[in-house]
């Protein structure tokens, strides 16, 4: 799929999402940017896209709610004319000891990390079918893709991301006949969290076979490849520098 004048809906546009948005706009895509609380980042990405000669719109939405996802897709089509690509990047990543978990924290994790991908994809698929096809790209995690949790304190997160992989496979089968390809990206050490200690940053790099963190551009490359393909579907690609090999 050539990105020129395609419309891309992106959820979760902070940090790595902003870099992805910039690259998509630089290659000719118009952007619909969904945010819940990070309006500043969404506005910045929209402004950046406009400077590149693209159209851009921002929409506030809680993507864990069906009504918000349906409105998000309909507003995108109404504002930008159609919808070709959905990138479900919205995610939360917090540690919580198993004994301290509550129903609320479980629901929040699965709602944002898994349910949102289903809801946005469900709403978007209808619009894409009308265009003769499209692309849906979900975001999982290298640990879930490798089939091992590895770190304690992330029960709900791990379950949600494992669910994203299953959802990707199931949707790929459901939507292949209508020309909608569904894949996922499972990032490894891409960008250190802002609060990570320098020693830990170095430890993660040392534990990665290529010896470093990946950087945002590695995610951009994977996104572009999954938009460009006309044959890959139902796949979850690890972008982890070989971390799963250890």
What report would you give on this structure?
By secondary structure, the chain is α/β, with parallel strands linked by helices. The chain has one domain (7-245): Rossmann fold (3-Layer(aba) Sandwich). The chain is 48% helix and 15% strand. The protein has 8 helices and 7 strands. The chain has a 7-stranded parallel β-sheet, sandwiched between helices.
Descriptive key words:
8 helices; Rossmann fold; alpha/beta; seven-stranded parallel β-sheet; globular
Largest sheet: 7 strands, parallel
Uncertain ranges: none
Order of helices and strands: EHEHEHEHEHHEHHE
The chain-level structural class is: alpha/beta
Provide a brief overview of the structure.
The protein is an alpha/beta fold and about 250 residues long. It has helices spanning about 15-25, 40-50, 65-80, 105-130, 140-145, 155-175, 200-205, 215-230; strands at about 5-10, 30-35, 55-60, 85-90, 135-140, 180-185, 235-240.
